[in-house]
Amino acid sequence: MTAEKKDVLQPVDDTARRLGKTLIRTAxxxxxxxIDPVDGSPFVSRVSLATAMDGSPVFLISRLSGHFNNLEKxxxxxxxxxxxxxxxxxxxxxxxxxxxxxxxxxxxxRDNIRRRYLSRHPKSSLYADFPDFAFxxxxxxxxxxxxxxxxxxxxxxxxxxxxxxGVEGLADMEEGAVSHMNSDHADAVEKYAKQxxxxxxxxxxxxxxxxxxxxxxxxxxxxxxxxxxxxxxxxLRPVLVALAKKA
Length: 247
What we know:
By secondary structure, the chain is an alpha+beta fold.
């Protein structure tokens, strides 16, 4: 008689949602699994990662790479995100994203994604516009979140992405707002980083979205979440001012 399989999944609560989103938003790299068209075998490689404003992972890869060729033939793929720390790597949080990836065509969306990606990976500006390189956007279909031993979740797409309805103008404001904060309010940006426990200095605002700020200092990435999502693009300035006064 076969023993009944135990359901190890826990209910997805706000803590799990925040963990999953933070893992994706702060990831600098991911293991990318594609399908080898030769025999359908899994093909795993590494890509540098950033996110679109809605939280969808994006990456920049060359047509000369094996995974580019694989994705052109079959866009189904997966990403493993999560940095192991000290001790047992399996004790650290990670998330597997399963879905599809597609090249981002020229246009305003690609411009926004390019800007956000290069703010996270500035050295990529050396080759980002080479003709053999393309930005890809990953569409999450399902996910498996592991917060460590005994902490398994199956978040929905809506648990990991950020709605943009009502804040469409934020994408148009982002470049100017990021540049302004870094050049004229560097002290406020440092305060934002301290609020999330950053110990070092030299922080810059890399990107923003309706739910928070992405901050970078060299290879370090930090995420500052707003107390509540922005309801309109015009809410951004007062929220940034309030956060600066909070520290």
